[in-house]
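Batch manifest, entry 17 of 40.
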Amino acid sequence: MSGELREQIYKTLNLKNTDELLEIWETNDREEWSDTAFEVIEEILQGRGVEIPEQQVDNSEGFTKQELKIIDDDNPPEFYDSFEVLQLIKWLKWASIASIVIALAFGLFAWIVTRSIFLQIYGAESWSMFNVFSSTCFPLIIMTIGFYVVFLYLPLKALARILEILMEMEFNSRKAKL
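Output type: structure tokens
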């Protein structure tokens, strides 16, 4: 970037009062302001003897403060990428919810298939007989959905939580003072 443009940015921003510059700095809107503008704002604030506060972090991924602290750590882990692990945890949580939806869809599908098979075998005139049959078959379908929950949902949720715990343990162990 040319020195003239930087000088023009400096002159323009230097006209703003300190509160306006602090607001721009803290908001950290990188779409509205260029990196050069933030460098100039920092320079102006330092020249005015103002303590420079922390900037807001773009959190478009929806991470918690603790997770952002882990991602932005100065001493990152060597064997994995924190961001990727946190993304995996999010996907595991979504997959666990999706497993419930899949289980319900499978249960509904099983119910429809069972009903159509029964009606093909015994005919439509045996509807009352189907009601007796369904009262015994319906609990089996509910048990199938329950097995999906036990064998899909709970392990996925547990794996996500275990990853969170392990990552937090590793993060805290790097901060230990010896």
